[in-house]
Amino acid sequence: MTSGSLPNDVAGLLATFGVSAADHSGGQRVVRSPLTGETIAQVREVAPSDATTAIGRAHDAFLAWRQVPAPRRGEFVRLLGEELRANKEALGRLVTIEAGKILSEGLGEVQEMIDICDFAVGLSRQLYGLTMGSERADHRLMEQWHPVGVVGVISAFNFPVAVWSWNAALAFVCGDSVVWKPSEKTPLAALAVQALTERVIARFPEAPEGLSVLLLGGREVGEALVDDTRVPVVSATGSTAMGRIVGQRLAARFGRAILELGGNNASIVAPSADLDLALRAIAFGAMGTAGQRCTTLRRLIVHESVYDRLVSRLKRVYAAVSIGNPLDGDALVGPLIDEAAFTAMDEALSQARAAGGTVHGGERQTAGVPAGGVYVRPALVEMPAQVGPVVHETFAPILYVLKYSTLDEAIALQNGVPQGLSSSIFSTDMRETDRFTSARGSDCGIANVNMGSSGAEIGGAFGGEKETGGGRESGSDAWKAYMRRQTNAINYGHAMPLAQGVRFDI
Ligand code: UN1
């Protein structure tokens, strides 16, 4: 598969999925690998008018797909899961090359896709409605869930394929078609997934052409998707700034938004914490994916009694962590996605210093890494207070450390930022852990105990509150956002009683 050069490696990988050379060469959008900065492809992007036509195809597909029995739709997703299983190595490698995450994380991302397919297969036989006791004699009151229409998916570079699958696997079993606009930074993994999906469509008699549509393009293409009334649901993952625009435009036409935006996730380390366990979780949460997960650990709130012990160990881990090209060696931290990410990181670190912070690490790495990639040592920043850059999400490996003395204070700090995605507490004191997960504890969509903030399983609903956008994807009953609820009141008697005892005798 490898021939020594990254562009050849990529061309070889894309060929295994059946992506033709015409799809990844000769286009106007240059795709660079963050590993080396090399150009690995040039893809063709569509114009907004092409997007409108493609949405029409997806809408036609929806009209047919909604009539296919849900368990058959589940069978389609089962086959998609099989394709992903068979191509896990190649797709995981492509994700690594295009997004820069280390190989085990690239493979883990594909595993998340497989997991959500498995989940969706079971779900296809469990799209349950309810029956309620009617207040009227000889009446039945019930609800059913119907397919909603075309689901738009806008995804970010950091999870270039898994985010699509959390939405698409559910949407497919729910009877919807999917139109996907991936990040401009990661079109190749999207092309690969689209090719695998088309393979399944081709051999599944009931699957219509247009069931899964990929739109490569920039902001205008995303806007065409967001503004099209044939798209009742748009799931968008990315920055809070992007989500604010998408949310408002959708609201203006009464479209449904599933928003998964910025996180500023914190962990509290209490006096009774198992520090060995906490250290491993913190290291992965803060430095994994080079700090570029929505769930990345960005703030560590440490009790004063364990602060010095934990922070001195963390400093050693930060100074020693292996940084490098994820394709060779055993690097745990790969490159940042691009130069702009480093600039943002550097600015945040300057602001932290100006606010009285002490920065350990954070330097650009040039030795032992490919010259064209943006490699950086993760930064550990001891802060006197939760001020300045600490309340913002900087998509880079920066962990701000704060000290606390009472749990109330720690929870107030944890909740004292505009974002509300993920959180955790390290404590072996039940009173503390249960308080943290209670109504007056963490205000986040995810609140973990003795675990880090990142690395959620697909079985739970994924998403968060406040500026994170409020959307939920993936497991639990997140599927309901991909369907429309219909309430049915059925009179099987001969009288015409009105609700609430109203009389209207004509
Ligand atoms: C994201 O960062 O966009 O919980 C999603 C996690 C992953 C998903 C992250 N399962 O870290």
Automatic annotation (TrEMBL):
Q: Which UniProt keywords apply?
A: NAD, Oxidoreductase
Tell me where in this chain the Aldehyde dehydrogenase domain is found.
28-487
Annotated coiled-coil positions are none
What superkingdom does the record give? Bacteria
EC number per UniProt: 1.2.1.3
Quote the InterPro entries the UniProt record gives.
Ald_DH/histidinol_DH, Ald_DH_C, Ald_DH_CS_GLU, Ald_DH_N, Aldehyde_DH_dom, ALDH7A1-like
Q: Cross-referenced SUPFAM superfamilies, in alphabetical order?
A: ALDH-like
Task: List, alphabetically, the Gene3D superfamilies matched.
Answer: Aldehyde Dehydrogenase, Chain A, domain 1, Aldehyde Dehydrogenase, Chain A, domain 2
Query: Transmembrane stretches, by residue range?
Result: none
Report the top EC class in one word: oxidoreductase
Oxidoreductase: is it a keyword of this entry? yes
Q: Name one GO molecular function term.
A: aldehyde dehydrogenase (NAD+) activity
Please give the family membership noted in the entry: Belongs to the aldehyde dehydrogenase family.
Name this protein carries in UniProt: aldehyde dehydrogenase (NAD(+))
Species assigned in the record: Methylobacterium nonmethylotrophicum
Q: What is the lineage of its organism?
A: Bacteria, Pseudomonadati, Pseudomonadota, Alphaproteobacteria, Hyphomicrobiales
